[in-house]
């Protein structure tokens, strides 16, 4: 099975309020595409030749895991953006965030801190754990919470390639702007699918 770079639902210049077209050209067009290409080069002749990305995340190691997880992570990240996003969740998801974190604002604060303080490269995640509770996780490098049996709802990429062209070393500024393009409609749909 040949993996392909997923199409975006928006143009590369549509997220300019938070992420520039130049960053999108490199992050989506070069880095995301690079992980797809690397994975396609690594899997022929292995047991992962026809595997889904989820199977690769659960079972692979080394380069196949790293590139497969990065394809999945980036797709999940880019799918959550919109030039006209829903700015706040409603209903069940909002109640779950309030129940687990005290308030929606406290969730934003806690998640932003997790994203800003992750040492080195990696990802901040909002997940549903096995007990049904929401939790914020930090994962280094290509780390993906599926591997631990958790169900991801949203992620923030804090590899430098995600923000350096726009924000240089100011990762907290990037994380602050990230919320301006995150579409809570997408996150609500993901949450509903887990029911």
Automatic annotation (TrEMBL):
Residues 89-190 form the Manganese/iron superoxide dismutase C-terminal domain. Keywords: Iron, Metal-binding, Oxidoreductase. It holds the Pfam family Sod_Fe_C. Mn(2+) binds at residues 27, 74, 157, 161. It catalyses: 2 superoxide + 2 H(+) = H2O2 + O2. Residues 2-81 form the Manganese/iron superoxide dismutase N-terminal domain. It is an enzyme of class 1 (oxidoreductase). It comes from the Bacteria. Its EC number is 1.15.1.1. GO terms for molecular function: metal ion binding; superoxide dismutase activity. The keyword Membrane does not apply. Gene3D superfamilies: Fe,Mn superoxide dismutase (SOD) domain, Iron/manganese superoxide dismutase, C-terminal domain. GO terms for cellular component: cytoplasm. Destroys radicals which are normally produced within the cells and which are toxic to biological systems. Belongs to the iron/manganese superoxide dismutase family. This is Superoxide dismutase. It comes from Tenuifilum thalassicum. The lineage of its organism: Bacteria, Pseudomonadati, Bacteroidota, Bacteroidia, Bacteroidales.
């Amino acid at each position: 099975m040949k993996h392909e770079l997923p199409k975006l639902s928006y143009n590369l210049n549509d997220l300019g309020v938070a992420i520039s077209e130049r960053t999108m050209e490199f992050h989506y067009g070069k880095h995301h595409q690079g992980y797809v290409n690397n994975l396609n080069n690594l899997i022929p002749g292995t047991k992962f030749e026809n595997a889904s990305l989820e199977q690769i995340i659960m079972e692979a190691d080394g380069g196949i895991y790293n590139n497969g997880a990065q394809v999945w992570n980036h797709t999940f990240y880019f799918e959550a953006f919109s030039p006209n996003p829903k700015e706040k969740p409603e209903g069940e998801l909002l109640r779950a965030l309030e129940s687990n974190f005290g308030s929606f604002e406290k969730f934003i604060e806690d998640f932003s801190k997790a994203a800003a303080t992750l040492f080195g490269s990696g990802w901040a995640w909002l997940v549903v754990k096995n007990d049904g509770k929401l939790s914020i996780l930090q994962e280094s490098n290509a780390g993906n919470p599926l591997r631990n049996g958790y169900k991801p709802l949203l992620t923030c990429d804090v590899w430098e390639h995600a923000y350096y062209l726009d924000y240089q070393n100011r990762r907290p500024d990037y994380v602050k702007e990230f919320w301006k393009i995150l579409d809570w409609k997408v996150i609500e749909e993901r949450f509903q699918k887990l029911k």
